[in-house]
Amino acid sequence: AASPSKSYNITLLPGDGIGPEVISVAKNALQLVASIEGFKVAFEEMPMGGAALDAVGVPLPDETLNSAKKSDATLLGAIGGYKWDKNEKHLKPETGLLQLREGLQVFANLRPATVLPQLVDASTLKKEVAEGVDLMVVRELTGGIYFGKPRGFSTNENGQEIGFNTEVYAAYEIDRIARIAFETARKRRGKLCSVDKANVLEASMLWRKIVTALASEYPDVELSHMYVDNAAMQLVRNPKQFDTIVTNNIFGDILSDEASMITGSIGMLPSASLGAAGPGLFEPIHGSAPDIAGQDKANPLATMLSAAMLLKYGLGEEKAAQRIEAAVLDTLNRGFRTGDIHSAGHKLVGCKEMGEEVLKSIDSKT
Ligand code: ATP
Ligand code: MG
């Protein structure tokens, strides 16, 4: 008799703007690879962001957060738009996203930056430098200077206005992000570069000490350290030297944006936010793109690749993840391009058609 197949619950948060378009396409891909790999997925679609504000008056309804907490993983489209830009803080779509991250306690943000051979011309760097780049930034997301206290405004002894912030990291916060980074490096090419400013900042000195102490638990991972100023430079000088980068909240904020520009194509970039045990949150790095929303123009591949990260890092279904990744490459190889990545000699398609072509590629490889 066939063994009972595994079954996963996935919360879908389409959100605003192009969110619903790209989520619907990614949902089909998840369904298809699940049936090929022999596991079940059940989707629960919930309101979030501006869509939730309009429907029930809050950007993250309790039912939405509860669904995300109970499920095995959450896939988010995008949130926000001009319509809500003037809202008060607690009524902004973006506040809902912060509440969701906090509610799920996802302290590790994973952002790959991969220069696909098919899209090397989109890179902001010279072809020789960009070709073959395949790196992952693991950013600490819930600590550091963005949250540290004391913070605020005051006056100094000369009566001058001052603004001040504090970078605080507790040992356990560094330990847990470093573990995720070592595990991530292990699933990739086994190289981890920890980025800090340990020559100047105490929080960085502790960071380096704890990351270094963990290395003996991961003998298969090669650990190196780099100061953040040098890392910013090395990322544009020779990004191929990096596999996995782990860094704190503020440095990660800056370096992950820098790394994404190496690829040059915002419509292609996925992300994952992971906690210690609970379900992860997976989303494309682009926003709701209100300028092209509802026109079937959005590139769904960032969301497809986020779905692949969901399978790999969220559910441990690596083969299914690889099927989506391979199909995305195959679809690009067959010449299909949405407007954001289009260039002469390729077939310009919309969001839906791009999605259908990826499904065909998944099918053709089984
Ligand atoms: P955020 O909402 O995070 O602040 P943003 O407003 O800075 O993001 P986006 O909404 O990501 O930026 O859009 C920036 C530009 O990129 C827009 O012109 C948008 O149309 C384009 N863009 C973003 N995502 C996609 C996509 N998936 N496909 C095609 N174009 C996209
Ligand atoms: Mg925006």
From TrEMBL:
Gene3D superfamilies: Isopropylmalate Dehydrogenase. GO terms for biological process: L-leucine biosynthetic process. Homodimer. It comes from Solanum bulbocastanum (Wild potato). The keyword 4Fe-4S does not apply. Catalyzes the oxidation of 3-carboxy-2-hydroxy-4-methylpentanoate (3-isopropylmalate) to 3-carboxy-4-methyl-2-oxopentanoate. The product decarboxylates to 4-methyl-2 oxopentanoate. It is an enzyme of class 1 (oxidoreductase). Belongs to the isocitrate and isopropylmalate dehydrogenases family. GO terms for molecular function: 3-isopropylmalate dehydrogenase activity; magnesium ion binding; NAD binding. Binds 1 Mg(2+) or Mn(2+) ion per subunit. This is 3-isopropylmalate dehydrogenase.
